[in-house]
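cron nightly-structures :: item 1 of 1
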Amino acid sequence: MKNSTLSTISAALLAASLSYSSLGWAENVLNVVPHAPLRTLDPLVSTANIVRTHGFMVFDTLVGMDSSYQPQPQMADFTISDDKLTYTFTLRDGLLWHDGTPVTAEDCVASLRRWAAHDTAGKRMMALATSLEATSDREFVLTMSEPFGLVLELLAKPSPVPAFMMPRRLAETPAGEQVTEMIGSGPFRFIADEYRPGDQVVYERFTDYKPRAEAMDWTAGGKQVKVDKVVWKNMPDMQTALNALQAGDVDFVEQVAVDLLPLLDMNPDITTGRLVTLGSQVTGQFNHRIPPFDDVKVRQAAVLALDQELMMRAAFGDPKHYTLCTSVYGCDVPLASDAGAEYYTGTAEERMGKAQQLLKESSYDGRTLLIMQPTDVATLNTQPIVAAERLREAGFTVQVAPMDWGSLQARKDSWKPVEEGGWNMFFTFWGVAGIWNPLVNMLIDGTGEDNTWAGWRVSPEIEELRQKYVRSTDPAEQKQIARDIQQIAHDQGFYFNGGEFGMVAAWRNEIKDLQPGPLSLYWGVHK
């Protein structure tokens, strides 16, 4: 009788286990609703946060960034010559690609060259390099023609285009083509057979990954993976995602709409909080190439008319979820300052009066300016409406053009006239991890080149200061240069700084040791 009872119980448990597995869930699987769908896999061709997070799952970097913004050895240890011109990198033992082949210095040299071709800051660094070559299977040397104060910082930066390492055969993919085979040396393997673009992504623990001995700290230290799989399942409807979280069908929702947080606060099984420790800056981008924003006075008038607090309150409600500041680098980073505050402070009425006067003095001829509105992005669909009302009060004629985020992304790269598919203004947001210093911040690129990020800003003064910044090795001098750049960016109306918000996540209480960082990190966590 006893054996029969045990057999019955075992059979029932087995049936329950099989039923559970058939749904795609298991105790060692972390089920995640990401903040956006993943449709692009190559982490060097997109600045989207979701693509960057995907990159850190699959790939690793030579150098990691810790929570003090300091570069630390990751895949490689490094030494710097006394004259600050020669950087020698030595790969640590036991590094393997996901296909089982060893990581070599030649792979890393090819990866750095590909990264520099896609990253504006990396391109500047490599322009001053006299050589980059492997000296053995595990060692390679970068030699600079003159001191460049940010070599390690650029190799460690977590955004917008991290210096991910990949096998040489992938790194040598011809220019203009995307890498589609996701073979890295990072803590997770990409499961290609289970990938459904825009819907599902599956990552499996890479059993041959050897974490560093140091404690985990942002993207530095030992990346200890404690689950067998991580499954991203896109759920465009936030209420559906939260229902799944409360039912236990998912474990973690990466970004919760703040107006729905009270629903979760009443559930004792759910915890909410900020794990992405750096916020995201909302920005109103102007098209500098076509009227009316080709006139600096028109841009200044727009900035003065717009209102940070009004927009943040409309989008995020409770002030505990947002911060107002004038820093182009983020509100709480070492280079933050109040340079240019005169464009954002004072009463809304005072700024509006200045805006109306500037617009009268400008070349603005009353033409309609088009603001693109992404209707499917909750954090960005209110700003165009609020902005349009303020700009109309200043004297602009405004049309708000509703569209989905994908259409906006395609249209933002056009500098044709509005009637031919162009645009005048749109809102987006940038994680502070991608704007925290003058070199990595694409929004203050003043070259105006065709391949610069949407807006095509031109400022020889800023470009001269950016060159001075990267050649400086004195932190005090770098901070002053960064402040000067920020002032010029505001004076020239590069874009409107809409304020900074924090990403609030939600997770079930059985999920332990979620790691804080500049992006969502999936090592260290366990169920």
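cron nightly-structures :: done
Confidence is low (pLDDT under 50) at residues 1-26.
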